[in-house]
Amino acid sequence: MKTGRFTLGFAYLRLSNEEAQGGESSSITNQRMIVQNYCKQNGITLVREFVDDGWSGGNFDRPGFKEMLRQLEQGKANLVITKDLSRLGRDMREASYYAEQFFPEHGIQYIAIADNFDTEHDNVLAPFLFAMNEVYLRDGSRKVKEVLRNKRENGQYCACPPYGYRKDQENRNRLAPDEMTAPVVERIFERAAAGDSSRKIALDLNADGIIPPLKYRVLYRDEFSEEGAARASDMWNYTTVKRILKNQVYLGHTLLGRSRKVSVKSKKKMAVPRDQWAVTNDTHPPLVDKALFQRAQENLGRGTRNYQAYDHVRKSIFGGIAVCSRCGYSLCSCGTVYKGEREKYWYLSCTHQRQDIPDPCEGVRIRYTDLVELVRRDLNDLLALSDQEVEQLVQEAVQRVGSTVNLELRKQKKEWAEARVATIDKMVTKLYADNAEGKVDDDRLNRLVGDLERESAGLKATLEELSAPSPEQEAADRYARFFELARQYTHLETLDRDTLVTFVDRIEVGPKVYADGSHKIPARSHQPYRQSVRIFYKFIGTLEPDGQEPDDQESDVQEIQPQAG
Question: Based on the structure, what is the number of domains in the chain?
Answer without folding.
Answer: 4
